Amino acid sequence: MNSGLPRWADLGLLPLFNLGLALLVAGVVVVLVGQDPWRVLAALLHGAFGTPRGIGYTLYYATTFIFTGLAVAVAFHAGLFNIGGEGQAILGGIGTGLVGLWLGAWLPAWLLLPLMALGGALAGLAWAAVPGWLQARRGSHIVITTIMFNFLASTLLVWLLVNKLKPAGSMAPESAPLAEAAQLPSLHQALAAFGIEWPASPLNLSLLLALAAALGVYLLLWRTRAGYRLRAVGSSPGAAAYAGIDPKRQTVLAMMIAGALAGLVGMNEIAGVQHKLLLEYVGGAGFTGIAVALMGRNHPLGIVLASVLFGALFQGGAEVAFEVPGFSRDMVVMLQGFIVLFSGAMAYVAAPLLARALRVGRAHG
Amino acid sequence: MQANDEVSLQVAAGSVHAIVGENGAGKSTLMSVLYGFHTADRGTIEVDGRPVQIRNPHEAIALGIGMVHQHFMLVEPFSALDNVLLGAEPHVLLHRAEAELRKRLYALMLSTGLKVDLDATVADLPVGDRQRLEILKALVRGARILILDEPTAVLTPQETETLFGVLERLAAQGTTILLITHKLKEVMRLAKRVTVMRGGRVVHETDVAQTSIEQLAAAMVGRKVAIGRDGMAARRGGEVRLRAAGLACQDALGVPRLQGVSLELRAGQIVGIAGVSGNGQSELLELLAGLRAPEAGTLELAGRRFGAAQWLDPHTARELGLAHVPEDRQARAMVMDFAAWESAALGYEDRADVSSGAGWVQRSALRRATAALMERFDVRPRNAELRCRQFSGGNQQKLVLARELSRGPKVLLVGQPTRGVDIGAIEFIYGQLRQLRDAGCALLVVSSELDEILALADRVLVMHAGRIVGELPVAQCDEQKLGLMMAGEVAA
After folding, report:
1. Taking the C-alpha atoms of B321, B324, B325 and B327 in order, what is their torsion angle to the nearest 10 degrees?
2. What is the distance of C-alpha A56 from the center of its chain?
3. Minimal CB count within 10 Å: which of A109, B217, B422, B452?
4. What angle, 0 to 180 degrees and rounded to 10, lies between the N-to-C axes of helices B94-112 and B127-140?
5. DSSP code at position B339
């Protein structure tokens, strides 16, 4: 998109401005309900970053958002709006969980964990490939099909849990727990192995996987021929056809990569934290990924930063609801809503204003 | 950006005043200010001696200013009458409004000579009729000042002549006409006075009677230019590099776009295809470049033979030494959001100099190669990191040519080589194409500008309604003859 801003302002100033605007409006609402916005902000920041444990939670949430954000971004660069991160992440959890449940008793962790990651990625990939194929070959709009596939995925998960995976005699729609070897070490365990103390939190080694995925996406999109073709199709289908690039192939390919990335959520949630397959482990992160990708301007670095911001909002928000009396969880959801609104849906509303301000500033400066 | 800088313009009532200048000279911005699309940061406008403010097109229309855009602003599925009605309904009841407007339009047609079938659907109207409809639309809204933006871009020479007749008549009846154009011949033919713009300023203003095409061209570019024929006799050409026979194709609605088109391209020869836009030239280019497959026909290229069932694809076309500079630069020739160096690899991304066997893009090599190409093809600014959309039309075209020519093609297809390109760059592009021909390449040039065909081609094919209706050596071509063939009235 062309905002008329210089690159640095487009990538740095504008998102910060939008974030500030969102906080300002949220602050006004906080005042209106009779609370002190500074106290809320302080509690939020302290909750998210004030303690090692808080940081752990923030980064744990961020890990999932990085995966789902990347899943949106890769598809976006191919000109596709992937709303299906939620379903692809659910399938990722199923893939990861099933591999862990089946092979957990026989394989050592060093072999099992990569296989579980692969299982999650492949399940997400296959799930996303279907809407991709339908778009490419049959012209079914990707937005509609991916939304429908989200519903299918959550139904599939319920069916699997209730009819296939629930241990006999159990009332909860949950699988049996994963074997020890199928549990991804959490960060405090890993650090303890090096003699570093860190308080217990759900943060686990899949954060490293997420950062590697972000780096991988960057390299793929901007350093390889495959990424070149994918972006060419996304920004100019006509030019891509002229170059002899098959847009249908790129559509399916981009969706498969996106699905695999979202599928890795299974490593964070199932292998890293829950250690069993259950309901609701994605919990809307697929949709948050859209906001993360929008705010991160579909660039892996931006997505990592936006993920940390959204992770902080989730974690800090939970703390605020706990710390500030009369400030419910819903208020935090509202704040998140404003951030999505200002930095996602209305990302370019302030661009002309900023561009003018910069011009005036330069003229006088 | 300063698009207009201290521009002053005075237009006498009832005269034809031409505004000429290269792309980006500020002509269109100036007209947008007069029509209320933009407001000037400073300065005043007077209409009939009264100072006025024009903040939007409604105010412009109320002041009697009408505009005919280069790209027509018509609703294609509506009838001609309803298009005129739209936005200026004289009555709340549609049938009363139509009846009243119809009466007024008939009176107007009678007095101006602008004839259009009011009940025809616009989509079915030929381009000339659509333009007349646009003019009628402006006049019936009370325009006494008519702004025409590149009105002849889509017309045959004969249609142009008809339009000029109408415009002269309108001027004689007291309508003031502002003609924006880059065709200097038309200025000489029609206008009383001419204003030359360059770089957002008025650089020259004179009576047409006291100037010449050469003088105006020099004022537009700021130096002397030569873009006519280079004087050399037509080349006979060597061996056949590409042979197409019996090409036919249809559009999505099943309307035939090409019928039985056959042609040969020979080494060291430029074949020009003349014709009014939309007579199958675009489809022909796309077929030959492998961008679409025909319903029937064969193609021979570099010893390979392709039939309708197994047609050429763009990738194979490049492998066989066929390069293509597409008509639609913005939508086809480059990815506008890519950096110049990235677009410089478009279509060649699997060549060893672009990406390694493992699939890594050779970024630094590609950047260096693009910088060198920009130097050789005089692309300005010389910055390979700039997005393609940040270059002017002429420089974009030079970038595309640079990419395609640098691969040493055996056959080159060029669509509208200088559309939206300014005169200085046209001279350069013509020079490059001639050089390539002299180096033995077989060229096909499709252009809706007759002058361009006449300046470049050794052999001219004329297309009308999806067929090749004539083939002439350039020496036997003149505008009159080609114009009649383009209109489908004579075959050669």
Report:
1. 170
2. 17
3. A109
4. 110
5. B
Tokens 């073709």 belong to: A229
| Biggest CA pair distance of chain A | 76
CB B321 within 8 A of CB B411: yes
**What stretches of A225-274 show up as alpha helix (H) in DSSP?**
225-235, 237-242, 247-263, 265-266
CA distances from B298 to A141, B254, B295 (A): 36, 20, 10
| Inter-chain touch A228–B389, beta carbons under 8 Å | no
Residue type, B142: G
Measured between CB atoms, which of A225, A235, A241 is closest to B361?
A: A225
Q: How many domains does chain A have?
A: 1
For residue B480, give the nearest of B91, B468, B492 by alpha carbon.
Answer: B492
Cα–chain center distance at B167: 22
Tally A–B CB contacts below 8 A. Answer: 72
Task: With a cut of 90, say whether residue B151 has pLDDT above it.
Answer: no
Q: Considering the domain boundaries, does residue A143 fall inside one?
A: yes
Nearest to B333 among A225, A232, A242 (CB): A242
**Is A231 inside a domain boundary?**
yes
- Distance between CA atoms of residues A54 and B256, nearest Å: 68
Identify the closest residue of chain B to A224 by CA–CA distance: B360
Q: Which two tokens stand for residue A206?
A: 């899949």
Looking at residue B361, the DSSP 8-state letter turns out to be B
Instruction: Check if B319 contacts A (Cβ < 8 Å).
Output: no
Q: Is A229 in Cβ contact with B349 (below 8 Å)?
A: yes
Residues in contact with B483: Cβ distance below 8 Å, sequence separation at least 6, in sequence order: B156, B157, B158, B450
Residue A221 is part of which domain span? 54-284
CA distance B459 to B346: 31
Q: Please give the torsion angle defined by the CA atoms of residues B156, B157, B162 and B164, in that order, rounded to the nearest 10 degrees.
A: 120
Pairing verdict, β B256-266 and B442-446: unpaired
Complex confidence, ipTM:
0.84
Within 10 A of A218 (CB to CB), how many other CB atoms are there?
16
- In angstroms, the CA B432 to CA B423 distance is 14
Which chain B residue is nearest to residue A219, measuring alpha carbons? B360
Looking at the predicted structure, is the pLDDT value of residue B492 above 70? Answer: no
**To the nearest whole angstrom, how far is the Cα of B220 from the nearest Cα of chain A?**
29
- Single-letter residue type at B111: S
Is A36 inside any structural domain?
Answer: no
The stretches in chain A having pLDDT less than 70 are: 1-4, 363, 365
- Chain A interface residues facing chain B, Cβ-Cβ under 8 Å? 2, 223-229, 231-232, 235-236, 238-244
Which of A156, A125, A172, A163 lies closest to A274 in space, CA to CA?
Answer: A172
Q: What distance in Å separates residue A2's CA from the closest CA in chain B?
A: 9
CB contact under 8 A, B349 and A226: no
Q: Residue B326 in contact with residue A241, Cβ under 8 Å?
A: no
**pLDDT tens digits for B402-426?**
999 999 999 999 999 988 777 778 8
User: What residues contact A98, with CB distance under 8 A and at least 6 apart?
Assistant: A119, A277
Residue A341 Cα to chain centre, angstroms? 17
Considering the domain boundaries, does residue A168 fall inside one?
yes
